[in-house]
Design a protein that fits this description.
657 residues, alpha+beta, five-stranded mixed β-sheet
Length: 657
């Protein structure tokens, strides 16, 4: 097998950041401008398609030839763009994409190795001899994006710059494309210490086919939702203007000043979390109404409807919603519509609300539900639909992180509760408070404390973790929160002990560079990178890990990682609880990966997935759900004794059951 390293530069009038790759490449005006490539260690070549050069026949054949492993950074881009190019030349059918099993993505490989995803940042983090050229952003803007159409010239202006318009810059652009291939090759070699397993390569191919397939959107419902949101928020804004006398009551500085002048309330922010508390602090009904309007207008989740309009293809399907290996743990990240953070739906008559929106009956929505933005928000999930004759089979793991944590840490009473089919929140409350707790029976009020403790405290968190999960909003006092933390830890001694065992194993490995074992886990080093081998055999990577003293003066650990707030490569502190969280979430991801692989093998098309849940588009006259639930419950060979269970339902449109 030969490695064919590729980088391309393209043009499309579609804004890729908003509409996504698939719609970008499907534009009738889409073009591949430059193709740089190298076979194995041969010198990099450039093909200038924009100036009339042609792809060699062997290269076109190689794109479909399994003898060539196609390598690229963010290989999805090259694969989809070449698929569209080959369709236009008649080499692929109109519905075909190049087979992803033949592609190797160095961006994914960077994520596996704990490196930044961008080519430039990864090259810098690795200290490569050759780095990505800094001229790239300027040149891409010059040649790859539309510009304003010029007037007063002879002939028709197509609103873009061509090589002949900027010949000097075009030559630099060609060098830039070549350099990307050279940097990508260096990254491929630098990360070769962690080879891609057959299982992970197959999972990558499944992920790519899910993105290629996409999910159908109810564009009538989407369009009506956008109109309803616009109309209703205009009404709210007009009402707020009358109540406050402000030109723009949606302006944070203006509204803060008005609140200060009207009530004396001084606020640093107007976050939606603070609004209810501020409203309760005043008896002024006018102020309360203004804050209520502010909360209603702040439903940013309704912007997902607008995103759907932008992303949907000509067949009303949204593609490219999932990013493979979107984090250190290997979990997926959401893109474009961001399906990973869809609002939940709690309307008991969801179907009626949806029908009102489909009929564009804003008056009925307002009459029946009052808060129109909130109702629209709860209907977002239902925009994902199955086509006629099909249905959506939705299935997820039941309390997967709690199961995996108890299994790895050896908290047997938790495992027994799961095996016996008990409500884990009731079982936890019973263990914490030493009284029987039933969901709808005796001591049922304690179940909520068992639930919030289970969700918030598994990774070393304390009172602040309970707060973040909504402890105070449930009416818990600081003393009750502290009492809940103490009782949960007393009820789960093996999990508490596991946090310190993980931290000690990581410290020992970082200092001695020797392999350290902890149950089904192995801590080891590869050069300057520490890895944790999960029960599945997959690794989590921590580059440049070393002991340090944390901000509290205690011995700790730090490694190099990407700061999510600043997007900078920097030192990141870690500790036993955080490492435990990584281990558990990564293992839960591997459980889902096993399920996805088996479901795909059974020929049940996955259209997208959310956290530990998969959504399949299947014929509505077969028992697909029972098959999928059975797969969720199958024991995993690398996790003996881990009790797994899937819960699911079938529905014509997506919802939170």
């Amino acid at each position: 097998m030969k490695d064919l390293h590729i980088d391309i530069e393209t043009y499309s009038p579609e804004p890729i950041a908003d509409c996504g790759l698939y719609k970008y490449a499907a534009s009738p005006k889409f073009q591949i401008l430059l193709v740089a490539y190298a076979v194995d260690d041969e010198p990099t070549q450039i093909i200038d398609l924009a100036q009339g050069e042609q792809l060699p026949w062997w290269f076109i054949k190689a794109l479909s030839d399994p003898f060539y492993r196609k390598c690229a950074h963010n290989a999805t881009f090259e694969r989809v763009c070449f698929s569209m190019y080959l369709r236009s030349k008649g080499h692929l059918q109109s519905w075909e994409f190049l087979d992803p099993i033949q592609w190797h993505c160095t961006m994914v490989q960077c994520s596996r190795c704990g490196l930044p995803l961008s080519l430039a940042q990864a090259g810098a983090a690795l200290g490569l001899a050759e780095q990505k050229m800094t001229e790239g952003k300027t040149l891409i803007k010059l040649f790859c994006t539309p510009r304003e159409i010029k007037t007063g010239i002879f002939g028709e202006d197509d609103g873009r710059n061509h090589p002949e318009d900027f010949p000097y810059e075009w030559e630099i652009f060609k060098d830039y494309c070549i350099r990307d291939v050279d940097v990508e090759r260096q990254i491929d070699k630098a990360t070769a210490w962690y080879p891609v397993s057959d299982f992970e390569q197959n999972l990558y191919a499944i992920d790519q086919r899910i993105n290629d397939r996409g999910v159908l959107l109810d564009m009538e419902l989407v369009g009506n939702a956008v109109r309803a949101d616009t109309i209703y928020k205009a009404r709210l804004n007009e009402e707020a203007m009358k109540l406050t006398g402000l030109d723009n009551p949606n302006s944070v500085p203006q509204l803060k000043r008005w609140l200060s002048e009207t009530t004396g309330i001084q606020l640093d922010t107007l976050s939606k979390r603070d609004l209810p508390e501020v409203a309760e602090s005043t008896q002024d009904q006018r102020v309360r109404r203004v804050l209520q309007i502010r909360a209603e207008m702040g439903k940013t989740s309704n912007k997902k409807y607008e995103a759907m309009q932008v992303v949907a293809g000509t067949d009303d399907r949204a593609r490219g919603l999932m990013q493979f290996y979107g984090s250190r743990t290997g979990r997926w990240a959401g893109r474009l519509i961001q399906v990973q953070n869809l609002p939940q739906n709690h309307l008991t008559d969801l179907d009626f609300a949806r029908r009102c929106l489909k009929e564009n009956d804003l008056e009925m929505i307002e009459l029946g539900y009052g808060n129109v933005p909130d109702t629209l928000s709860q209907l977002i999930r239902t925009a994902f639909i199955a086509p006629p004759g099909d249905t959506l089979a939705v299935c997820d793991f039941s309390a997967i992180e709690a199961r995996v944590l108890a299994w790895i840490a050896g908290e047997t009473w938790v495992l027994d509760a799961f095996r016996n089919g008990e409500d884990i929140y009731c079982a936890t409350a019973t263990q914490m408070f030493h009284v029987p707790v039933e969901k709808h029976g005796q001591n049922s009020e304690l179940r909520q404390r068992g639930k919030i403790a289970t969700l918030a405290l598994g990774y070393g968190g304390g009172v602040s973790a309970l707060d973040a999960m909504g402890g105070k909003r449930l009416g818990m006092t600081e003393q009750e929160e502290a009492d809940t933390v103490r009782k949960w830890r007393e009820a789960n001694p093996n999990i508490v002990r596991f946090w310190m065992q993980v931290e000690n194993a990581a410290k020992e490995c970082a200092i001695t560079k020797a392999a350290t074992h902890l149950g089904p886990l192995e801590f080891a080093t590869h050069g300057k990178t520490m890895t944790i081998q999960l029960p599945s055999g997959r690794l989590i990577s921590y580059p440049d890990i070393q002991p340090c003293t944390n901000r509290f003066g205690s011995a700790s650990l730090k490694y190099h990682g990407l700061n999510q707030q600043t997007n900078k490569w920097c030192w990141i502190e870690t500790y036993g609880g955080k490492l435990t969280e990584n281990i558990i979430q990564a293992t839960a991801r591997d459980c889902l990966a096993e399920v996805m692989t088996k479901v795909d093998k059974r020929g049940l098309p996955i259209v997208f997935h959310v956290h530990d849940e998969i959504i399949c588009q299947v014929p509505d006259d077969i028992g697909a759900l029972d098959v999928i639930k059975g797969i969720f419950a199958e024991p995993l060979p690398w996790a003996p004794g881990l009790p797994l269970k899937g819960a699911g339902y079938v529905t014509p449109y997506y919802l939170k059951d």
